[in-house]
Amino acid sequence: MAYQPHPPHHQHHHDPQITAWFMAVDQDRSGRIQAHELQSALMSSNGRRFSDTACRLMIGMYDNGTKAIDINGFAQLFTYINQWIDTFKRFDSNGSGFIDQFELAKALKLMGYNFSPNFADIIVKKFGRLGTGLAVDEFILSCILIHNLTASFRQKDPHFQRVITSSN
Ligand SMILES: [Ca+2]
User: Where do the EF-hand domain residues begin and end (predicted)?
Assistant: First the structure.
């Protein structure tokens, strides 16, 4: 599935599971979730904490610049987090808790991106470790950054694909 955040819409009914998660994550009961609260709630499969950067970027998708999200933003982010984790698990074919550059290339293709083959190598080198790969938070971080990058290219240049996709 392509990663395409929608503008926040006003929902007044949430899945009881979402409400329960929101209340569990909102430790100070402020009615909003900040990056550090999200960070305490998330643990990758290999027991690592999600990085500060990944949590700040996730909150930033729906915070309108306020550094905290309400339950509407959380409901949307929750859906994305689940999709990213599902994609991650699906492509971590050997169950190592990391996806390597080959698995990442397949995942990006599934998400609708058409990058040159060495793009996945560059991402793994930059955000994870070549040979080991990306942990789940590094994978999510990469997905958000790639989305932001391609969205800003699209804004400036409708033919961005030509710029960032090298010919095979
Ligand atoms: Ca809070």
Answer: 13-48, 79-114
